[in-house]
Amino acid sequence: MRRILIVTAALAAAGCVCPVCDDGAARAPTFGEDVAFLQRHTDAFVLSDGAGEAQVAVVPLYQGRVMTSTAGGPGGTSFGWLNRELIARGERQPHINVFGGEDRFWLGPEGGQYSLFFKPGAPFDLAHWQTPAAIDWGGWKTAGRTETEAHFRKAVTQTNYTGTVLKLRVDRTVRLIARDRAARQLGVTLDPALDVVAFETDNRITHIGAEPWTPQGGLPSIWILGMFNPSDTTTIVIPFKPGPEAELGPVVNDAYFGKVPPDRLKVGDGVLYFRGDGRYRSKIGIGPERARPVLGSYDALRRVLTLVQYTLPDNAAAYVNSMWELQDEPYGGDVVNSYNDGPPAPGAPPLGPFYELETSSPAAALLPGQTLRHIHRTIHLQGPETALEPVARAALGVSPAEIRAAFGN
User: Fold this and answer.
1) pLDDT value at 195 more than 90
2) CATH topology for the 97-406 domain
3) Please, is 100 exposed, middle or buried when counting C-beta atoms within 10 Å of its C-beta (0-12, 13-18, 19+)?
């Protein structure tokens, strides 16, 4: 999230468009208020099975993005972070349009000799960094829609830093998941005391060019990023495969913005904890030798457990490297990332604030006509800790109490 430096100052100057309480203080919008706001400014619609309170808001104008969701109907908690000022302004920004949202489609890598965000030969700095237009601005074609899912399609042509022209078609399906299926995906029985919303995006890129994609020319990847509302009691939890560094490499990559202080990143026995408070700009990553197909977060104040499941192929080792430099290992990148927003410089305001849970596919070494698929599934559960405990233990290997204890929440 180096890119946040570009727009922070402009957004800080914008007026607040959040709801207010009777005493004039800003408060968190409900899901219904977020949807109404989005529909005033975009083509947002809601996926719902009509039988419960689980709902998901989707915006075709923002590349088929899932903006937010709820487990409690229109009056329930809205889980996605929305950049209300930018959305209300409706003006295209240089470098990136940070609209927010729980699940957005991107392509990697961001940096390096096969970057899709820098023109050939450009310096790796903010002035030359540019999010590809196809994944940043403008609507995607809605190729199909029902009450519980929507399918989007986009043809993309992008030249990477090396000069290779990549032609591909993106097919993206947003799908609301029923409670019983979510329980099966988690391998648990869900307590009736829990409010639950689950959805997934089924993302596919198909090579529509004439020449094979090769490591020497640069391989793209599918990159899904979710932006969520932070709090002082939110902790990001990422299980990992334990073992010696000589065999599996470092447990965590925290070199994106400098080393993360120990009061913000703790490595336990097979699980790491990372603050999601939106108060300190930092980012971490987990490589393929360490990654497990799940990560999550827990907001101890609101009793919200968020889980992300994703496609993690067996023995996939080639993941694109997004560091902003010419790289010795361009396919030695991370599978899972988490970003915590915060001031980019002393005294500067944060962009959000928000925190992110991100997953990536392997590098796509495709022949013409071949397709790579990556599923990214988000599940929010809200309710008593006693009901959340078996779910957290099954998915993350730790209890809510252990998560709270990591940073004294």
Assistant:
1) yes
2) Beta-galactosidase; Chain A, domain 5 (2.70.98)
3) buried
